[in-house]
Design a protein that fits this description.
Layout lengths: L1 H21 L2 H9 L17 E2 L3 E6 L5 H26 L14 H28 L4 E6 L4 E7 L7 E7 L3 E9 L5 E8 L5 E2 L9 H15 L3 E2 L2
Parallel strand pairs: 6-9
Antiparallel strand pairs: 1-2, 2-3, 3-4, 4-5, 6-7, 7-8
Helix pairs in contact: 3-4
Length: 232
């Protein structure tokens, strides 16, 4: 009985160690981003938080599911619907909705032009809503010292390249580069410079970060990778 009393704790300890290895931050985050929720349009990126340990750094990247995209998709949808209803009312000589008076609008050419704008706006709004539903651009940046890899994962459009998974050796990272340009279209992007490859952007595109965010992310990443910062 004394022997069995000793074996049981050892088995429990071994099982606990195995479970601990299988539930590392990297495994949890990959399961979160690579779950089979693509067709349902669930937002995988916004549910993830940054993971940073001595050996692993995983930084989520927000995709198309942003407030600005929802806002512009709604605006374009409302505008295109108004143009279509006005064009249809002019063609039918009857107001389809009470708050849009098209009695003084002739179908040719005004009504036809409005119908054209409505169709164009409907196509654009459909594209925007599909991009939001598919959460294009969402993903994460993973820097794993245990495995010696850098993984850049992004969601694309449905098809062959729905999941873009770029893996490089962590030893090839030479520097962290920051690009800052002000003006009408400001750019504040953090890049990773790899040996023999083009610079890889890490921050999201289409929504510039603040200067403080850029400097903070670049400094933390350079400290983690122990490489210099360029551009600051």
């Amino acid at each position: 009985m004394g022997g069995s009393a000793i074996v049981a704790p050892r088995r429990a300890t071994k099982a606990t160690q195995t479970m601990t290895r299988r539930t590392t931050p990297t495994t949890i985050t990959r399961a979160l981003f690579n779950s089979s929720n693509d067709s349902q349009g669930k937002d995988n990126s916004t549910t993830a938080t940054r993971v940073s340990t001595d050996a692993v750094m995983i930084d989520p990247v927000v995709g198309a599911k942003r407030f600005s995209n929802y806002f512009w998709a709604g605006v374009v949808t409302a505008g295109s619907t108004g143009f279509l209803l006005t064009g249809a009312s002019a063609y039918l000589h009857h107001n389809l909705v009470f708050f849009l008076d098209a009695s003084e609008i002739k179908f040719f050419p005004q009504g036809l032009v409005m119908s054209f704008y409505g169709v164009a706006g409907a196509l654009l709004s459909t594209y925007l809503w599909l991009t939001i539903t598919w959460d294009v651009g969402a993903g994460y940046n993973e820097f794993n010292k245990d495995e010696g890899i850098m993984r850049i994962f992004r969601y694309g459009f449905p098809g062959k390249n729905r999941r873009i998974n770029l893996v490089s050796d962590l030893a090839d990272v030479q520097a962290v580069r920051v690009e800052i340009s002000e003006g009408v279209n400001p750019r504040r992007v953090v890049y990773v410079r790899c040996k023999g490859k083009r610079d890889i952007p890490l921050t999201r595109i289409g929504q510039p970060l603040t200067l403080a965010e850029v400097e903070s992310r670049a400094a933390e990443l350079a400290k983690f990778l122990q490489v210099p910062i360029e551009g600051l």
